[in-house]
Amino acid sequence: GKIEWAMWANEQALAAGLIYLTGGIVGVAGQFRGWQFAAFGIAAGVFVCLLEYPRSKRSKGTSVERTGQYCFTVCVKAFGPLTSNYYVRALLHAALCVPGGFMLATVLGCVCLGIASLIYLSAAIHGEHWEPILHRKELSKRIGESIKKPPQNPPPRPPPELRRKKADHLETAAYDNPMTVAVSE
Amino acid sequence: MGNWIINHGLSAFIVVVWMGINIFLFVYYYMLYDLGPQFEYTRELLGAALPWARAPAAVLNFNCMLILLPVCRNLLSLLRGSFMCCERTMRKQLDKNLTFHKLVAYMIALMTAVHTIAHLLNVERYSNSLAGLYGPLAGNLSMLGDSSELNTTYLNPIRSTSTTPTLFVFTTIAGLTGVVITLALILIITSSMEVIRRSFFEVFWYTHHLFIIFFAGLVFHGAGRIVRSQQVTDPPHNNSFCEDQPENWGKIPECPIPQFAGGFPQTWMWVIGPMIIYLCERILRFIRYMQPVSYRKIVIRPSRVLELQLVKAGFKMEVGQYVFLNCPAISQLEWHPFTMTSAPEEDFFSVHIRLAGDWTEKLIKMVENLPEGAQGPSISVDGPLGTASEDVFKYEVSMLVGAGIGVTPFASILKSIWYKFKDSNPKLQTKRIYFYWLCRETHAFEWFADLLQVLEKEMEERGMKDFLTYKLYLTGWDQSHADHAMVHFDKDTDIITGLKQKTLYGRPNWDKEFEEVRKDNPSSEVGTFLCGPQALAKDLDKKCVKYSDVDPRRTKFYFNKENF
Question: Where in the cell is it found (chain B) (predicted)?
């Protein structure tokens, strides 16, 4: 079907965040030259992961949440247009990825995040934006209420043709009549 | 426990063997690079990061060899046909090809991560060695260059202190190919996530073709031969004696200058076989693509379901198989799978196409605008490709469960039964069939209800009411359905399908069903076939295990799943 680019951008960005983070950890732990860029990589990686973890609601079709993403959704939603606009995200990722290019351990994270930024740009151009997936708690309450309310209508009855007993078709009648029925019409 | 072995034993065994080989390769190559004397000087520079990089490399070789094989669907189809012995178990194994492909892919991803991290450390250490940060031995080893006058060969691939690790990686074959193929791998993985695959198949399919770049880069990855081992010199260089006095190398007889050479690149030896096999697979698909296909009949069924009856020279199918259709007028590169709904006994093959996305929508629209009796748009067919349903006649008793659109392969099976019956075909080993059709609504499956009506009549005429027992479950009923059913409850035929067998509402109680089948068939082997959602598969799988008896004289349930 029609691709919602943001979905792929989201997967790519999340992966990029993890790779940026891992590269950063290696750079800092190994005390590589230029470890300051690696330290930045760790911070940027964590930030990107937190931002990208909550999936957006799809414009068409069912959205699948990531486990436990509700708290992240609330946080991300709080930033309003800064997080829901994909142009801003594309720019943000592009900016975050640049320092990664200065050190080998974070180069891969840099390129992956750059690609994610490009896909987000494509999503933005196609008019997509981030929508929070929120639970609909009200629905369950409604069902509970109706159980307590007594039925307003009588139970359904078969239509009149079946209800009336015809003398020559006594077996097919819908119920037993205590009184004998005379032929009518 | 015994039941689990019957149903899952072989898969578990294969995974254990595969994992065992992985572990063996990892440990063997780790030891080789960690303890091997020819790498002693290399370890001086690189430390523990050397074996940590080389061990996953070996595991990667093995898994990159394996990954192409499970997706050669035509090859697998041939294999399925040729497994005459151990039929049932071997055929089930090949159903799990995609699961295995994913497992191998995860291993590749994991090993790539370990390999890359280890090499990051390696490059940094090479750089530091050259700068003299690891002492005189490492420093002197690093300064050995490739020079014929001085009779030296290099050990440290970084030759200049002005080369940063990043620059080094992008100017060596190994570094450049490594980055490119890792990037390709990451893109393949992110586009293969279930969410993307199920919703936007084209993104998944096209991005997946980056595997071509992956394999090309992989084959050349070792060409630079930058992991060096020490060669035997004449007179030999005594490492333990000479390592403390690097300044005397070449000056005293016990310590000639040590010589180094890179290992012969081996990856191509692992992957060339499967690459050729996969190439053959793609060529075979292309050849099938070029065969002309003509339309015998086009029918537009209720609910905009398109039935295409096609004829192709030399096409032979079996029940429940599927084909891939390609319509160049809609998209040059897209191939979409459709289960065939015709029986092998017919002289054509048919598919019922439901509106499910862009491609199907365009096809239906094109066909709707065709004049009466005209040929449809030019179409190519790849297949037939076999799945579990081929086995349905080999079981004495079969339970067929079709959920929603999953009922399609069973159309083929039921039609084939009808033909085999008419011809009194001795190949039919089946004595009883239980068919369960689950759907939310019968919308778009009216054609299937028609088929059942015809079969129902046939069965009655021949007095074989027992052969086929079918139950229809309408899982999407609501109040209006219930009302309607209550009103018409006296009628002979079902109000929804028009069949003698009444529609049941809600989901089936599988425990009851399995009990019933077990009671009616106390000593048979029952094959359970499902075409439907994963959750139901898990459910049925568990029930098969639960109701199977290890005692060979009693009922045993085997579970097969058709994967889409």
Answer: Membrane
